């Protein structure tokens, strides 16, 4: 069986009464939020810049190391050829 429920009168609440955006407290909170967002973005982009700069330095060192390794490799090839030539010269002894 169903019970009848008495109707409740509707109460209309205007948004201005719920949140007053023009109050000084809300303005201060909005300013603080904007300031925090600005500081966060500043730190974020500065971090990206510093990481990029560091990666450029690492790439420079890596390229320099690669060049040095190529020099060592060519020197090793030359030494191996010279050692083979010396071995061929002293085969008679």
UniProtKB/TrEMBL annotation:
Keywords on record: Membrane, Transmembrane, Transmembrane helix
Transmembrane spans: 28-45
Keyword Membrane: yes
Protein name in the entry: Uncharacterized protein
Origin organism lineage: Eukaryota, Metazoa, Ecdysozoa, Arthropoda, Hexapoda
């Amino acid at each position: 069986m169903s019970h009848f429920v008495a109707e409740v009168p509707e109460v209309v609440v205007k948004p201005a009464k719920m949140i007053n955006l023009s109050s000084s407290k809300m303005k201060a909170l909005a300013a603080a939020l904007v300031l925090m967002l600005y500081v966060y973005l500043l730190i974020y982009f500065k971090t990206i810049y510093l990481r990029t700069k560091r990666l450029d330095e690492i790439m420079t060192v890596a390229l320099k190391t690669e060049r040095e390794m190529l020099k060592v490799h060519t020197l090793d090839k030359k030494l191996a050829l010279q050692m083979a030539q010396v071995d061929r010269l002293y085969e008679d002894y």
